[in-house]
């Protein structure tokens, strides 16, 4: 029987999610920690397609996550519409904003693209503070209502289970996308854009599509975090989170989207859940990234794969 491409990664991801759920149990702090990890992972997965596959570094992912978060906040506090619609409206709006920003910056690359999109993220935060009648200003939106799915209101633990399921599904789909003909073209376009253009593929259009996909995924993460926290403010999704999201795939392994998920787990463990290094977790994380780039450029997953092949070769 032919194995579905990417199924091994999904199997490992599901196994890891089950172990996390066993570890979490009924501990409220651990449940919050897992939803934070899922948010980090989704933002990192959102950056994976345009950044690591297409080679376009955008720093506006705090804004995209914020759009998803405020979609949940606004639908909850300002309308009577079903809250589930926020996870449709948020990603759609974020994708549209990403396309418009991509059109405006289509001639930029490298440092200049990063700088302009960074300024956009800062401008978005300032807009949220100033638009007090809509966004609640610097205080944001709070006391959000619970999700109601045909009379069923999921508990906090069920939200944790759902968030892990969403991360696994999106990571699996991105892994399939990476191995698809479209993914091969996008990865080729990163290294040889002129060759792709010569083959009749519009590089600019492919870039816009990758940006839209990434923004939509980040918005899903923003909505998840806002619902779990019960509130959202202009400072909920800071530049610190964006910078961490850049390094997460490098830590876990840039060759596969699952590396972004593993990188998110490691980043949260060091910066939020390891008491021995909690005050200096970000510094240790930065040093870890440096060591990984020097010793194992393919990240933890790449290094583990290489060790497995080496051990397997010796046994053979």
From TrEMBL:
Its main location: membrane. GO terms for molecular function: branched-chain amino acid transmembrane transporter activity. GO terms for cellular component: plasma membrane. The keyword Cell membrane applies. Pfam families: BPD_transp_2. It is found in: Cell membrane. This is Branched-chain amino acid ABC transporter permease.
């Amino acid at each position: 029987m032919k194995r579905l491409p990417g199924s091994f990664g999904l199997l490992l991801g599901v196994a890891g999610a089950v172990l996390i759920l066993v570890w979490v149990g009924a501990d409220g702090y651990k449940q919050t920690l897992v939803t934070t990890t899922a948010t980090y992972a989704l933002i990192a997965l959102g950056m994976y397609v345009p950044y690591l596959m297409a080679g376009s570094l955008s720093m506006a992912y705090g804004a995209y996550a914020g759009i998803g978060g405020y979609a949940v906040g606004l639908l909850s506090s300002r309308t009577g519409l079903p809250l589930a619609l926020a996870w449709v409206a948020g990603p759609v709006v974020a994708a549209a904003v990403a396309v418009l920003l991509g059109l405006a910056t289509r001639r930029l690359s490298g440092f200049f693209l990063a700088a302009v999109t960074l300024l956009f993220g800062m401008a978005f935060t300032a807009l949220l503070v100033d638009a007090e009648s809509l966004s609640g200003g610097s205080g944001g939106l709070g006391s959000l209502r619970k999700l109601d799915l045909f009379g069923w209101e999921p508990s906090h633990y069920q939200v944790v289970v759902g968030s892990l399921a969403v991360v696994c599904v999106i990571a699996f789909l991105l892994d399939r996308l990476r191995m698809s003909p479209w993914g091969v073209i996008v990865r080729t376009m990163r290294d040889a854009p002129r060759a792709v253009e010569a083959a009749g593929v519009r590089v600019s259009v492919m870039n816009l599509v990758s940006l839209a996909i990434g923004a939509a995924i980040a918005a899903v993460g923003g909505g998840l975090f806002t619902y779990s926290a019960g509130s959202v403010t202009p400072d909920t999704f800071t530049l610190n989170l964006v910078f961490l999201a850049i390094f997460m795939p490098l830590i876990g392994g840039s060759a596969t989207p699952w590396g972004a998920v593993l990188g998110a787990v490691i980043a949260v463990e060091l910066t939020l859940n390891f008491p021995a290094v909690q005050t200096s977790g970000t510094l240790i994380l930065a040093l870890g990234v440096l060591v990984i780039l020097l010793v194992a450029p393919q990240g933890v997953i790449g290094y583990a794969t290489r060790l497995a092949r080496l051990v397997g070769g010796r046994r053979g």
